[in-house]
Each structure stands twice: as structure tokens, then as C-alpha cells.
Amino acid sequence: MFLETTLPNGLKVIGEQNPEALSVAMGFLARAGSRDEPAHLNGVSHFLEHMLFKGSEETRAQQINHQFDALGANYNAFTSEEVTVYHAAVLKEHASALQHLLTELLKPAFRPEDFELEKQVILEEIQMYQDDPISRLFDAARENFWGSHPLGQSVLGTAETVGNLQVEELRQYFHTLYAPNNLIFAVTGAFDWEQVVSQLQQETAFWQPSEVQRQHPEFVPTFETQRLKEKQLNRSSMTLMGRGLASTDEKRIPMNVLVELLGGENSRLHWKLVHVGLADEASLSHVDADGIGYLEAFISAEPRKARKALEVFHQVIAEARENLSEAELARARNKLALQAALRFETPYNRLFHLGLEFLYTGRYLSTEETVQAILQVQMAEVQDLLHSPLFDQWSLTLQGP
To answer: Would residue 124 show up in a list of annotated catalytic residues for this protein?
Structure first.
């Protein structure tokens, strides 16, 4: 059963009830990611995620974490380009206590000493990612493809922007982007809906809405090649990026089936590149985002085989336009449908699908509806996408010796 309401302060509350479940999962989703940050505050969303676990005026970081552990909770948070999610799951008898703790997270104290300590932790995290070749590759590829569009900004931020960040800037960003009208509270599994709503209304009564709206600037992709010459590496890695579909596009599910067929496990790219030894890794994925989307491919090969591997990647696209079979399509549909069924059968996993789907599209899709939508994808839909301009132009970033 799907349930939905909006509190007087603008907080949207959604739930998917399963009385037979033994657990309950819940979380806050904030429409706040790196694409929402001013350039000089790049990394503030991720920094804020860290700070919310440092405690409120009533509790300290250690107390918060001990209280989660006392409930036996699985809990964590993540930040992406478009959303920050605080999530947890417990046995159903601890639902009210878990909800209180999650709400307490969104009352941060922003103590200066916690802020300075966490800044050093994040600066070290940035350095760790800069030391990783694949992280450098993808950062450079996305910056090249997105140009000045905010989706090209790093989730972590840079050493300069994080180093210069002030606690008052963090506090202001929180009050603007974490306004109740920019949040969703999602709950799945076994729970009392009236209790959830009543408790939320009481504990968030003082939260004030704000005027906040995500910007959607015009995007003109950069289709060019850039080279990151790194002599110390013994592999050549390549990332190709192209235009994709928005999360509200009706062709989104056929696109996911298509990229599974082309670049998933045991896909055409696997058999043409990895199986024959031209590459040790080859994949293609599609990311549907808010108002926009993109394709992203990755190939890793020996330097002497890199050029040939890149040629074969383009050949795979060209050949698929001519000779896709119904058997291939059926395999891709069945694989994606099973993945969806397995992934969404527990309350904790359902939480993410429920919350993110609603955040992006404003609609509810059950597991059954998701599975059936995948299984109903037709060859004509896939071929229309393959023959569209989306697969004609690629931004290429090469890294290696």
C-alpha cells in the first residue's frame, strides 16, 4: 500500500506499507547535491552530510551513533550530484525510536570545533581520491563533458573550495536547501502510518520552509578528446560520455535495457572486448538525472591495444543498429527484471527506489510495476534509441602512458 501526505510546513511524507515485514526502513531525502552548489562552495553538500552526524544541541556525535547501535540499526548517508540521503533500518518494534533519531540528525549544532575537525577529514578524503587513477579519470571526463554546467562539479569539492569553506556558509546552505519543502521523508516495511505522520508533525513543527528551486541551465555538451598522459601507469583507461535521458523520460526503461544489452555483464562489449583479450574491462551505463541524463562508457586495456579497443567499441554500436536479435533483447529484459525484483524485495532496498523515484518523478512505482515495465520493452523502442543521435557523439578522455 502506497501512502502520501504533506505536512503544513511543506515536508512531503511517503510510505510503502508491508504488514508482513519484520523490519522498517526510513530516511530523509534532500534535493541538495553538488549541482546545487555555488562554484565557490563546491563540496558543501558532502561536507554537510558529515556534519549532520556530529550531533545536535542536545546530543553529541558519539551519543547519536551509540543510540543507532543500541537499536541494532543499519544506518548511513550518501551525497550525489543531485541528492543527499540519510537512511536507516531496524526491526519494526524500534520504528518510533529510529524516526526520532533520524529527525534529530536534521537539527545540527554546527559546533566550530566539529567543523574544523571534519574539514581535515574531508581534505584527506579528497587527497585519497586524487591519488586514485580511476577517480582522476572520471573527474576529468565529467569536467570535460559537462563544461560549465553544474553537473560537472565534484561531489567532494576541491581542496581549495573545502579549505576556504566557513561554518556560517555551511549553516546558511543547510537552512536554505534543507527546508522542509525541499525534503522527502520516506518509510517502507511494517509501520503505523498515523504514528509516523503524527510524530513527524510534532518533531518538525518549528521547521520553516524557504524559497528554493533547482536551476536547470542550458547544457551544451563538449564532444572532444582529452589526454591525461600519466607515464607511471601501465594501463590505458578510457571514458566516453554522451547525452542521455532525463528521469521523467518515458524512454528511460528501454534505455536501461539497451545499455544492459550493450555494456552489462555478458554483453556485446564483454564478448567483443574482454572475452577476446582486447580489454580487461568494458562497460556502458546510463544515468537518468533531474531534467537531463547521460551515457558513460569505460574501457581498460593494454596501451598497445587501446586504439583497437576504442575502434571495436564504436563497431559494437554500429553492428547493434543492424543485427539486434529478439533473443538478446529477451535476455537483457529478464536479467534487469530479476535484478529489480531481488533488489526491491526488502524494505531497506525498497526505501531507495521509493524515495528516489518519487523525488525525481513525483510518482509511485511498485516492484511489480517496475518489473513489468522492463519485461514489456519492445525491439522497436530499443532500435529507436540506437538510431537516435544519442549514440552518435561522444566525449572521450584517455589516461595512461
So the answer is: no
